[in-house]
Amino acid sequence: MRRLQKAISFLSMGIMAISIFVSCDKDFATIDSDLINEDTFNFDTDKDVLNVKAYNRSFDNKPVQTNTLPYNLLGYFVDPVFGSSEAGFVTQITPASYNPIFGENVEIDSVILTLPYFSTIIGTEEDGSLFRLDSVYGSEPIKISIYENAYFLRNIDPNGENIDTPQKYYSNASDGYSQIPVELLQSAEIYDTIGFKPQETEIRFRDTVGAVVDRLNPAMRVHLETGFWKNKIIDKQGDPVLSNASNFRNYFRGLYFKAESINNEGTLISLNLASSGTGITIYYKRDPAEDGAERISASFDLNFTGTRFNVLSPIETPIPSDEINGDDRLYLKGGQGSMAVIELFGGENEDDIPELNEFESYRREFSEVDADGEFVRAKKIINEANLVFYVDEDVDQTYISDRIYLYDLENNVPLIDFSTDYSGGTSPLTYRSIHLGPLQREGEELDGKGIKYKVRITDHVRNLLLGNGENIKLGLTVSSNLRIDDIFDSQNTSGRAPADVLNDPSNGGLAISSILTPKNVVLHGSTESNGVKKLELEIYYTDPEVNY
Prior knowledge:
This protein is mostly beta strands. It has helices spanning 2-21, 182-185, 226-232, 245-251, 358-366, 416-419, 458-465, 512-515; strands at residues 43-58, 72-79, 83-91, 94-95, 107-116, 119-125, 128-133, 136-138, 142-148, 188-196, 203-206, 212-216, 219-224, 255-260, 267-271, 279-286, 296-303, 308-312, 329-333, 338-344, 367-369, 375-378, 381-390, 404-408, 413-414, 440-441, 450-456, 474-478, 520-524, 536-544.
């Protein structure tokens, strides 16, 4: 994290220098075009456009860590640009209590699995609410199978650097060292259905005369075979396997949810397995304490807390990558898909020979440095710096992403601009929208054709040119919800650093919010063939006429 701390330190120095320059006129406006009102102050203003290098990074043979996801994917998705993919998940099971007393002569009435969908109330009717399902992609039925998992899921990595290093699990159903055998993941099938489609209707429970007595938001709610659960849970009353978490998780090692296509079509669903109402409930009857009394109805709950990870198939489409010259198109795809790497100033750094270095030469136009190349004072004021990513409008946009995420790929943290941008509230469509501009569409219509994204990196560039910040590589991905990646927000407990990637010598992680969406976008790259839509770095700056 040395680089990050260094960047923050010199950001403060850069801001101090800027404040000195603007003391004679503090009413600086944010630049959103090439035009600046020069009558406001006695400064020369200008704009530079600089080359960057951008290239693709595919995860077709690089499984990504998925046991830190805040929610999970299940289903089969057909992408018109990148091909089809499957998503399943493995999860531990946790009983609501240990050492349960079920009673005598227990008979199970039913076993119900409930997995709530993400949904929004859009209206009401006489008997309840009307809902719209969120985070559902596709509309065709799929096959879902549920298996008992016989592979023990560890919490601690026995090969880790420390004795308490958490165990990682990856999208290829491995622990990073070896593949989990299929015969263990699928040791026994306990449920399957063909033709499953998520329904947006509220689940209503009625009494004998038809009156609604209870309601549930839209959810996958299915009946499981009772015999398995009687043998696995009820008949183990008094057994040590139900006495504590350690014994139970070694005895019942969890479930594997597997999704498959029907006729190469399907639907992908996002599920929050940590939400209330999620789990398995065993409804049963037992003998009363007194002879002659009616049998007693009771229930026992199990939830999905503990270790949980997604199993994802990689993209089918080969992605080109030219790390030397950059790529003509940038292919961003969620899941175990693909991202782009952005190198400002060709990836050069302050430690290189100035005469041969575009970055160092340009930096010295903005800053005075000492004999060691360390920042002394600012010569110019950086008003704004942007990267504008143009969408390839000839590519299918059915599942185009509304948001993209640019981050520090070498330290696996957001950029400084992310932490200083408090715009947009909490909505996924507007969160941090000054720094990471949402997709701009034709006519500003919600369903208009995608045109471009504007990413403002002013503070990051100030660190580089008005300080001693290191010119690190940047990662660019699609995003399902930028709040998931916000590790700087102390009020956001869901913030997560990028996930680990196997078989990747660069050690750069993949943003969590990218793994959780199947969406995509194809962008114009950094090569000359892109013409006016070529990816470039725009820097708006002020050169004071007075030598302070």
